[in-house]
Structure formats: C-alpha cells, structure tokens
Specification:
binds iron/sulfur cluster; TIM Barrel; 16 strands; alpha/beta; three-stranded antiparallel beta sheet; Arc Repressor Mutant, subunit A
Amino acid sequence: MRELSIYIHIPFCVRKCLYCDFLSFPVQEGQRTERISSYGNLLKREIEEAADRYGDYQVVSVFWGGGTPSLLPAETLAGIMETLYGSYRVVADAEITIEANPGTVTADGLRGYITAGINRISIGLQSTDDEELTRIGRIHDYHTFLETYELARAAGFRNINIDLMAALPGQSVSSYRKTLERAAALKPEHISAYSLILEEGTPLYERQDDYRFPTEEEDREMYLLTDAFLSACGYHRYEISNYALDGYECRHNKVYWQRGHYAGFGLGAASMVENVRWSNPATFGEYEAYTAGLGHGDGDTDGDGDADEDGRQQEHTQKAGSYPARQVLTREEQMEEFMFLGLRMMCGVSPAEFEKLFGRRIEDVYGDVLCRLYRQELLVRVSDRIRLTARGIDVSNRVMAEFLLD
Ligand code: SF4
C-alpha cells in the first residue's frame, strides 16, 4: 500500500513575529475560540471529503504546522484527529507532530494532545538570549520556553524537537554557542537550526539598518559550529539543517525531501501526490468557499490531476469553490526535484533509484554536472549513493542550482 503524509495548517498566532512571512494571522484572545472553532469545522469537512481520494494510501505521518497549532484547545484538535482516524487508514506507529510556541500550552492541554494521538512536539525556541528574542518579535523569553519544555516532558512527550535560528540581529558567535549549549543540555531528541532569512516586506526587513547582523564570516562560523557542537553532543546531521539522536529523524520532513506523497489541509496548504502539486486557497473567504464546494462533484476528485498522456504540464484556472489549480510535474521537473531535494539529505541520492524512477541513467542526464561537481569536491560518490561533501554543504544552494534542466 502506498504511503501518505498529512500536513494540517493552523494559520493563527498570538501576534506576528517581526521576521515572519508565513501564512499566519494574529488573533486577539477574545476572538480566538470562535475563529479556531469555525476554522476547525472547515478543516474537518476538507479532511473528510478528501478521504475517498486516498483510499489506497496509508497515513504514516501527520504534521500540525502553522502559525501556532498549540493555540488549538485539545478538544478541538481531538475532534479533527477523530475525523482523520475515522476516514483514513493511519498506521499504528504514525509520527504525529504538533508545532508549539512557548507560553501557549498548559499541562492539561498537552496531555489532551497526547490522548488525541500526538506523539511528537516541535517547540520554537530560536534563541535563549532574551534580547535576541525581543529583536525578532517572539512572544516568549527563554524562561517561558523552559517552562513549556518541562511541561511537555512531564506530560509524557518522548520525542521533542527544538527549533533554533542563527544570523539573528545583534547575535554573536558566543551568544549562539550559548543557545546551542543550553538547547543540547535539555537533550531533546531533535534539533533544527536554520539561518534567519530577511524576507522583503517584513518589519525586520524594513528595520534592518537599525541592527548589526552577523557578518558573513560570523554566519559561516555559526553554521560550522552547529554541526561540530551538536555532533559532539551525540546528534547526527541527517539533513542540511536538521539533527537527531539515533532513531529520531523526522519522518514527516523526510517525506518532502524524498518526494513522497503528501496531502495538505487548511488555508494555503500544499499537496503533492503522484507528481501532481496543488495549493489550497490562501484567503479565509476563498478557503471557506472551497470547502463548501467539496463533495458537490465540482472539479477533479480523483486526485490524479489532468496530465496529458506524455505528462506535459497543464495549469488550470482556479475559481472560488472549485478544486485548486493543479500542476502536473514534467519528467524534467521530477528529476530536478529528485536531485535537489534528495541532496539536502546527508545520505544523498541513489543512482539506481533514479534509473528505476525515470528509466534513464543518472549519468546520461547529469553526467557533465556530476563530473564538474566531483572535480570541485562538492559532491562525492560513495558506493551506491551520491552526496554532498562538507564543502558542498557549505555552498549547497549553488550546488542545487546546477541540477536545473533547461
Ligand atoms: S510564531 Fe511562527 S508563524 Fe507565527 S508569527 Fe511567529 S514565525 Fe510566524
């Protein structure tokens, strides 16, 4: 049976962080219950109506992302999980993650999540330096994070991720080291460490001249420090920005990098199943109209998209209430993704798998690129895999760009 991962988007936050360009909206405390409850009903409808499409799949992971999913009362989340369990085949050992922000959970709420089937929690810490947290507009300080972390452990979570960020305004290599030390000392099963990207249009982007950002050298030093320090603490790097204790790699994220099938539910959520990609409407009005139209025989309900016989890409016009526009990936796009997503993983890509999937030898498609990158010692072939070298990881964006086909 084919495997499916499910992503559920919760687009609400307490307030907007200054660097954030994700699809999320601040919601006042007084309006939260009502808005979350009506959004939860739309989600249930979408999840239930899509179930027929996935009759041949078993769900191996579920990821509640956002936004701030931990704003959901446990009973609301449990109701949606019930819909999921009732209409999909969810494997007994499915990895079911919720993203949480410090200060947004209670002991009862966390226990409720566990009862509802959540078995992994990902907590957004970013930094243990309170001034750095204030500069990027996080809602919490380090102490609040510690309380949330301890509550999660006490509630029974045995699989915890901590999210960290480097290259923050005013951050130094030594303050970043302290963040790493404090995070690793808690012994979470998983640590993600990304560099801040200044996105145009965010308040931090507008105010960037007010701060001293780490220089390129300092940024690089933090990057190298992350791997060296976390390795020494027993974490292995399995993807460019992700580290885990043995047995705790994130199953859900690996599905993205390995081009597995995933269905996204909720506002703006992206899906990719059998090389067909689509995204849900990104405004509440359109999403509501879309979910209201489900089950009324409108649109392509088989989930296969509408590829022509040779798989040429087709774009379809989206109309409110209809199924979202679908993009059928061409063979070239599939090969590109296979390479640049697969190479993000430290285990790299398998030439044999490439040939099995695409009916062509990897050397026949990428021979020149591979030779060049081997020569530059950015890629290496080790027995039956091709993977990035340490230098290649350093300039991974440049390496990935080489795999785009004209
Ligand atoms: S908590 Fe996450 S999604 Fe919400 S505003 Fe901050 S960065 Fe954005």
